[in-house]
Amino acid sequence: MATPLFEIRNLHASVEGVEILKGVDLVVHEGDVHALMGPNGSGKSTLANALLGNSEYQVTSGSILFRGEDITGWPTDVRAKAGIFLAFQYPEEVAGVPVIQFLRQAMGARKGIEDMSVLETRMAILEWMKRLEMDPSFGDRYLNEGFSGGEKKRNEILQMAMLEPDLAVLDETDSGLDIDALRIVARGVNEVRAARPQMGVLLITHYQRILQALQPDVVHILIDGRVVDRGGPDLAERLEREGYDAWR
């Protein structure tokens, strides 16, 4: 059997000494879309931050493997360069740094190229902006500064498209979006997947509505720091009907 793209083994993690994750197991293969669903406080964002090596989240036991290699101790920048991408629930504003400049530097780091062509970078970014229905002027605006919630999320998808990750972790990308913005973001994710079919996706969400557009292969339910159930898309439909109390 092929080595999984990404694997979490019995992962325990704490924040300020309080254990949040209490033994999470999860396996993602190339091209798969996995949805991780859970109520507030279940540990979803803690998992996302632990996967990207945020120093505020301490992995106390268990391991994280990427293409069969244990990356539990890798720093965030090394994970990103290796091909792991995190779309944030609350993207940060970076004053004074235009989107195109940020992406040019990030792409150079990802691809190991010190001096990316300014013209080629701009043309590639503008092409993806068109596909994501983004105003081209956003490229010259400071990163996320003055962006609406939907614009910030589309900008995260733009970053994912440009950085060409092998694994994308989408932390509540649907949070705070209206129906139209949600459709645009979901369509953007599918555009990136079409261009990069081997990319694995771990989508962290509260709600089923984005799953109707992204069609996950596997759905996991996380409650109180543990995966308490997993199954196909029908599991999300059952969750929509019954709520999380059925698993508590």
Protein traits:
8 helices, Rossmann fold, 248 residues, alpha/beta, 4-stranded antiparallel beta sheet
Structural class estimated from helices and strands? alpha/beta
How many domains comprise the coordinates?
1
- How many angstroms does the end-to-end distance come to? 34 Å
How many E-type strands?
12
CATH architecture: 3-Layer(aba) Sandwich
Q: How do the strands of the widest beta sheet line up side by side? A: 6-9-10-3-11-12
Name the CATH superfamily assignment: P-loop containing nucleotide triphosphate hydrolases
- CATH class division: Alpha Beta
As a whole number of angstroms, the C-alpha radius of gyration is 18 Å
* Sequence stretches where pLDDT stays below 50 over 5 or more residues: none
Count up the helices: 8
Reported by name, the CATH topology is Rossmann fold
Helix-strand string: EEEHEEHEEHHEHEHEHEEH
* Major β-sheet profile: 6 strands, mixed
